[in-house]
Amino acid sequence: MTAPDINDFASDLDFDPVEANDFLEKSDAEKRLRWGVEKFKDSLVLSSSFGAQAAVMLHLATRVSPYIKVIFIDTGYLFSETYKFAESLTKRLGVNLNIYRSKRSPAWQEALHGKRWEQGIDKLDSYNYENKVEPMNRALDELKAKAWLAGLRRQQSASRESLPVLAIANGRVKIHPIIDWTDKNVHDYLKANDLPYHPLWEKGYISIGDTHTTRRLEDGISEEETRFFGLKRECGLHENVSTDFNI
Question: Of 17, 52, 96, 205, which residue is least crowded by CB atoms under 10 Å?
Answer without folding.
Answer: 96
